[in-house]
Amino acid sequence: MATRLDGKVVSKRILSELQQTVTGLAQQGVTPTLAVILVGSDPASQVYVRNKQRRAEEIGVRSLMFKLPEETSQKTLLAKVAELNQDPDVDGILVQLPLPKQLDERVVINSIDPDKDVDGFSPVSVGRLWTNEPTVVASTPYGIMALLDAYQIDVTGKRVVIVGRSNIVGRPLAGLMVNHDATVTIAHSKTRDLKALTREADILVVAIGVPHFIGADAVKPGATVIDVGISRGADGKLHGDVDADAVEPVAGALTPVPGGVGPMTIASLMAQTVELAKRRLHG
Ligand SMILES: Nc1nc(=O)c2c([nH]1)NC[C@@H]1CN(c3ccc(C(=O)N[C@@H](CCC(=O)O)C(=O)O)cc3)C=[N+]21
Ligand SMILES: [Mg+2]
Known about the structure:
Elements: E1 3-4, H1 7-27, E2 33-39, H2 43-59, E3 62-68, H3 74-86, E4 92-95, H4 105-111, H5 123-130, H6 139-150, E5 159-163, H7 170-179, E6 183-187, H8 194-198, E7 203-206, E8 224-227, E9 231-232, E10 238-239, H9 244-247, E11 253-254, H10 261-282
Parallel strand pairs: 1-11, 2-3, 2-4, 5-6, 5-7, 7-8, 8-11
Antiparallel strand pairs: 9-10
Bound molecules: 5,10-Methenyltetrahydrofolate and magnesium ion.
InterPro entries: Aminoacid_DH-like_N_sf (IPR046346), NAD(P)-bd_dom_sf (IPR036291), THF_DH/CycHdrlase (IPR000672), THF_DH/CycHdrlase_cat_dom (IPR020630), THF_DH/CycHdrlase_CS (IPR020867), THF_DH/CycHdrlase_NAD-bd_dom (IPR020631)
Protein name: Bifunctional protein FolD
Keywords: Amino-acid biosynthesis, Histidine biosynthesis, Hydrolase, Methionine biosynthesis, Multifunctional enzyme, NADP, One-carbon metabolism, Oxidoreductase, Purine biosynthesis
C-alpha cells in the first residue's frame, strides 16, 4: 500500500511557520501583500482564488482581490497590472489563469514586473530557474518539491518522468528537478509508447487534466506518484489524473486528490509572497 503524501497536513505545518515569520515582519512594519487579479467567472478559478484568500488571511498576509468582468479588454487588464507594478505596498502580483480568450496570456504575464512575479511565470524568472539562480518559481512545482522533501523522498539520481509540458507545472518542475540532480524526462500527448516510459519512472508526475489517465500498468512497483490533475466529475467529485484505487497497491507513495498537490500550491504561493516582502527590509 502506498504512503499517502498528505499535502493538507504538510501545508498546515508550512503555513503555521509562515505565520510566525509574518508576525516578525509586522513588528518591522512590513505586511506582505499579494494582489490577485481574477478575470471572469470560471468556477474552478473562483474556488482556487477563494482558497488562496482564506490561507492568506489565516497567516496575516494581506490579499488584495481584483475581480474583473469576463469581457475585460487587454488594455484595461494591462492598466491594472501597471498600477500594481507601481504600488509600493504590493509585493506579489498574480493573474489567475486561464484568461478569457480575447486576452493574450503571454503579453499580460510579460507586463508583470519580474520583481513582483510571485507565480514565477515571467521570462526573467524562468531564465533564472534554468540557470539555477535563486528565483521565485511556479507554486505548484515548488509545492511538489516541498512535499517530497517533507517525506524525505530524495530525487538525486532518480528517474523522474513528468507527463505534461505546461508553463505552470511540467516545464518549471523539470527545471527544479534537474537543479536537484534528478534525471528528467518530459512526456506529452505526442510521446510514443508513453506507458513503457512511465513504467521506468522512480518518480512519476502527471499534470494533464485527464481523469484517471494513469492506471496500475503505467506505474513501476514502489514508485512515487504525484497527481497534479484535478477535474470535477459529473458526480460532483474531484478526480485526479491517476486512478488512485488501482495505483495505490502498486505505488510506494501517492498524493491524494484533493488534499495533495493543491494545498501545497497555495502554501508555496504564500511562502514566496513572504520572501518577496522580505526584500523591503534587505533590498
Ligand atoms: N496564475 C496562476 N497561478 C496558479 O498557481 C494557478 C493558476 N493561475 N491557475 C490554475 C492553477 C491551479 N491552481 C490550484 C490552486 C489550488 C488548488 C486547491 O486548492 N486544490 C484543493 C481542492 C480545491 C477544490 O475543492 O476544488 C486540493 O487539491 O485539495 C488547486 C489548484 C493554481 N493555479
Ligand atoms: Mg491535489
